[in-house]
Amino acid sequence: MDFSSLTPALWLGLLGTPLMIAMGQVLFKLTSRSIGSFSVGGLLALAVNPVLLAALVLYGLGTIIWIYVLRSVPLTIAYSFMGLTFCFVPVLAQVFFGEPLSLRYAFGAMLIIAGLLTINV
């Protein structure tokens, strides 16, 4: 596939969908801080939790965008971009939760990006 033929909207979808999935993971983590017991009442409270609902909306929106990306980009190429979630989630976890980033993470993220480039260039 010739990447010069991709529109800015497709690039936004290829890069934005993994970022939306990563942001959804942050919202799931935030939700986990406020859940109660695994009971009917706890599940009902979870079902109306606004942070969880925001995460689900974000996932749903990301899925819809991804479907439009897949209209124009072969799955074998597009799906490799989902590996970026493994780069985005730890960075967002550091920003929002203070979770540490290590040199091993940086090296792993570089390998993921190198793999993405190897597959697609």
Automatic annotation (TrEMBL):
InterPro entries: EmrE-like
TM regions (residue ranges): 6-28, 40-69, 75-96, 103-119
Domain of life: Bacteria
Keywords: Membrane, Transmembrane, Transmembrane helix
Keyword Membrane: yes
Protein name: Transporter
Organism annotation: Rhizobium oryzicola
